[in-house]
Design a protein that fits this description.
This protein has about 425 residues and is mainly beta. Helix content is about 10%, strand content about 35%. It has helices spanning about 1-20, 20-35, 285, and strands at about 60-65, 65-70, 75, 90-95, 105, 115-120, 125-130, 140, 150, 160-165, 170-175, 190-195, 200-205, 210-215, 240-245, 250-255, 260-265, 305-310, 325-330, 335-340, 350-355, 365-370, 380, 385, 390-395, 400-405, 410-415, 420-425, 430-435.
């Protein structure tokens, strides 16, 4: 059984490595196969198996005396402590109240979109209350007095405010702008993670739809519900006191201890343009002629690319399936088309951390941009980096920031030194980059 769990741990580490750093782990495996394993033999990679072996998927079983569940992919889940059902799928956001008495999860699964409040955390049977909302995504945080819970509305473009004691939604802040009163449709804003100042007055939230950060003055939020429990002021436009552009697909956000510096991780690489023509005809075959991607990453995406679109009969395709001048489509007509370029994958907005001065919360100012991993095209351990580092989470320490990268381990960089430096904390290597 000890050997079984050791193989489980090893497989989990390798599988995790593949997920976040496929090229590097492939290189490490190849090197291992060439020089042999610890016993002088070839790589043991092909001998790995699922941790659960041949056990069927189940929500309740015992593995080595430990209560466990077996997932359909063969992984084992062995919860420690008390397990609590949040009564909704995908609890993506998690926050503990400052007084330590309540835990909140923001549930962003297929439904119900909801906030779950968990009380009596130290008891053997914590109490659970689920509060359903129209939409939700990632961000959840408590006010300093633990009485309010702020949560992101995702596709509806708003923030919800919940009364933690009453277990009820009592307010909303619409980030879509004054010309778009709140309804159930996407209007451009897609709020995600958020950070609250230590005083509780200023709330910062990333907008993954608009590539922005919004600043909310919580003291200006009007709350209240009518006799049917409906929020009486769903927009609260006046509470949104500032905005600032950030990078592509802002994901993580954090404040330094003095509340003067805001950190935003940008996990995306490109900002795509809409293909709608300047004068649409209303015929989709004419307005949107691309039936297949008209450019291939990374060689053809940086600049505009002129291609030929050739109409073919999908029931009688030509023998040569490729067109050297472009693509073939089963609808539309023969035409020349320009695929808009996306620019450099190493632009400041791509796979980076934005450092914003928020000493004046109404007017955040960008102070710096930090790249947290190898740039696309750079050589890393003998391999050319193919994608960005995709930083997704950030924590500020006393003299450094710690950034979790989705594609090449993690990074640590000092933000008070000049120039700023990036140091990779990979278990396989240590490298430093000037920012």
């Amino acid at each position: 059984m000890g050997d079984y769990f050791q193989r489980h741990k090893t497989l989990t580490a390798v599988m995790g490595g593949v997920a976040v750093s496929g090229l590097l782990i492939a290189g490490a495996w190849t090197a291992s196969a060439q020089r042999g394993g610890n016993d002088g033999g070839l790589s043991q990679f092909l001998k790995f198996s699922a941790p659960a072996g041949n056990r069927p998927a189940t929500t309740s079983t015992v593995i080595g005396g430990v209560s466990a569940a077996v997932l359909p992919n063969g992984r084992l889940v062995t919860p420690a402590g008390v397990e609590v059902n949040v009564q909704a799928p995908k609890p993506f956001g998690l926050a503990l109240s400052p007084n330590g008495r309540m835990l909140a999860t923001l549930n962003s699964g297929a439904g119900p979109f909801s906030l779950t409040l968990i009380n009596d955390l130290t008891s053997a049977a914590p109490t659970v209350k689920r509060i359903d909302v129209n939409a939700s995504f990632m961000g959840v945080v408590f006010s300093p007095d633990s009485k309010r819970v702020y949560l992101s509305g995702g596709e509806t473009g708003n923030l919800w405010i919940a009364d933690a004691d009453a277990g009820q939604i009592v307010g909303s802040v619409n980030l879509n702008g004054a010309t778009h009163p709140l309804d159930r449709r996407f209007k451009g804003a897609f709020p995600g993670n958020m950070a609250l100042s230590s005083s509780g007055r200023f709330l910062y939230v990333v907008d993954q739809g608009g590539f922005k950060v919004h600043v909310i003055d919580t003291s200006l939020i009007k709350t209240g519900v009518d006799g049917l429990g409906r929020v009486t002021e769903p927009d609260n436009f006046a509470a949104v006191i500032g905005r600032a552009p950030v990078g592509r697909y802002p994901f993580g956000i954090g404040l330094t201890a003095d509340d003067r510096t805001l950190l935003v991780t940008n996990a995306g690489v490109f900002q795509y343009a809409h293909l709608r023509p300047a004068s649409p005809t209303g015929n989709d075959d004419v307005d949107y002629p691309l039936c297949l991607p008209g450019a291939g990453y990374p060689d053809e995406t940086q600049n505009d690319r002129v291609i030929a679109i050739r109409k073919v009969d999908p029931r009688n395709l030509p023998d040569d399936l490729r067109d050297p001048d472009g693509i073939r489509c089963g609808y539309g007509s023969n035409r020349i088309y320009t695929v808009p370029g996306l620019g450099s994958p190493n632009a400041p907005e791509s796979s980076s951390v934005f450092v914003l001065d928020v000493s004046n919360p109404q007017s955040p100012q960008r102070r710096g941009v930090v790249k947290t991993g190898p740039l696309v095209g750079e050589s890393d351990e003998g391999f050319d980096a193919y994608s960005g580092s995709h930083p997704n989470a950030v924590i500020a320490g006393s003299d450094a920031l710690y950034v979790a990268n989705g594609n090449n381990d993690c990074s640590r960089w000092g933000w008070r030194s000049a120039p700023m430096r990036t140091r990779c904390m990979s278990p396989r290597r240590a490298s430093t980059r000037s920012a």
